[in-house]
Amino acid sequence: MSFPKIFCAIDTDQMDHAKDLVQTIAQTGIGIKLGLEFFNYFGAQGVEDVMSVAPDTPLFLDLKFHDIPNTVAGAVKAVSHRLKPAYLNVHAAGGLEMMKQAKEACYEGSRLLAVTVLTSLDDKALS
Predict the structure, then answer these.
(1) Catalytic residue at 103?
(2) Summary mean pLDDT of the chain
(3) Extents of the domains making up the chain
(4) For the structural domain made of 7-126, what CATH number should be given?
(5) Model pTM?
(6) Which of 5, 64, 103, 124 is catalytic?
(7) Buried (b) or exposed (e) across 13-45, using 16+ Cβ within 10 A?
């Protein structure tokens, strides 16, 4: 399966605005990225609701799961099997075992990514 190389972040806590953006963006062939803020406001049902306006548009769930391996595996399984995103991510700082268990739990049609460095970190924080 081929996914777009560009995903547009929908970072809002307004459902109607998110639906309008998704409907507009879907016409361009660009994917939709929903992150932690959106997910915490609306949950999995909110993701389903917003994606219902463009059901064939690929979804990237940017949740950066990071916890003990078993907990992350459970979270990845729950969200990926329900929402079937094109991409889902974990934070690599959780370690190799966490990433392995997340991969094993991930819906087979989803691609699991590992975030290594957050863009908000500056040189001082990285050192």
Answers:
(1) no
(2) 94
(3) 7-126
(4) 3.20.20.70
(5) 0.91
(6) 64
(7) eeeeebbebbeebbeeebbbbbbeebbeebeee
